[in-house]
Input
Amino acid sequence: MADEELKAQVDQYVDEVWEDVVADIRTLVQVESVEDLDHAEPGKPWGPAPYEALSRALAIAGRLGLDAHDLDGYLGYADLAGESESYIATIAHTDIVPLGLGWTVDPLDVTRREGYLLGRGVLDDKGPFVLSLYAAHFFQRQVAAGGARLPYTLRCIIGNNEETGMGDVPYYLDRFPEPAFCFSPDADFPLICGEKGVYHGEITSAKVAGEKIVELDGGTVPNAIPGLATAVVRADAAALPTSDGIEVEPAGEGLARVVAHGKGGHASLPAGTVNAIGVLVRYLLDAGVCGKGQRAFLELERTLTASTDGSSTGIASADDKFGPLTCIQGTIRTRDGRFVQTIDSRYPTSISGDDITRIVGALAEGIGGSYRVLADVPPFYIEPSSPEIQALLATYGEYAGRDATPLVIGGGTYARHFKRACAFGPHDPEEQVPAWVGMEHGPDEGISEQSLRRALKIYIVSIARLMRLELD
Output
């Protein structure tokens, strides 16, 4: 089929199915599919809500004529059988980060507003996942109508643990061969060919909670910059000073609650954010609301939150492929009389996870605390000149009307777990959006319907072109 004929069919298809696409996105957004290991059980390893989202996703895939399978609740997949058992795959996910604060619409529904869809997961990644199913459905309808089978099997992998540990992918790769090629619709256009290393660590203070500061709490997950942080302190609320971004209220006899407000966002994109933990610790230090044993920890917190490029921490680094390192502080908690702070760093090839461990570990030990590594995944890169990458870039460029240059990012996607893979849209950084449209992981997360419609067309045409390549 000539490309122009294919594109005309794709245009007609997207117009026909679009309301069903939005309805299926809503079906998934309605599930608060945040990892819940406290209620995990056999068949539901990430908790009941992620499993419910996975079950709904599999039901949608089955309704669209794909051969859907549940892999013990870890993840799923849905196939359109081709002439070869070798397969081309998409991989998207149905789990989400916690809802967080600051929403002006219901985060567990799809709100349509002025051409945009708003709701947790419409961009990351339930909306794009639904697009992957409908891309496969386009080809399924052709086969069902008597058309030729695709040269390769087309598989839509349904991830269910991307936001926390990506523990679903190893489970999959232990049971199936690598795809001939795979792309994840969970990032930016034009295309992501490289991802910085992803590093998570945890600083634990000495046992100092309970002095002037009774409790510290902030953030939702390690890989998001917190927009809210609180402290319960031994003080008269009325006597505490006022400050920008700070609210103070009574919290019981002799206690006050200090609430710090920042501007949250994804850990890999700290520009323009304000870490609420930093706002809080600066206030407590400036107001003198900390015990003698707590001051050293707060001073370290002030140092850690003073930059997002690692310069204040001593781990700043950059290379010509990935650019500069980023480092943020995601959550702070009080456990067993100690304060526990997580850090998230996205690092280039000019520094290693071991280097970060050594430097940050020394800072923790310097205040009498301890340090441990939670995760360390090295940088990922696929050569942009490969035929698969060039096919995807060309398709995007045709629809966008401009030359497409591949990007590298600080975010970690599923692509890094496969030998031949990339991340491919659907968010387009070139698109100008209203201020009330939030980013991924933030309140009022949203994306335009026009962007999603175009992405679906790009995915269908890209898959058709991948099917023409010699990938074995």
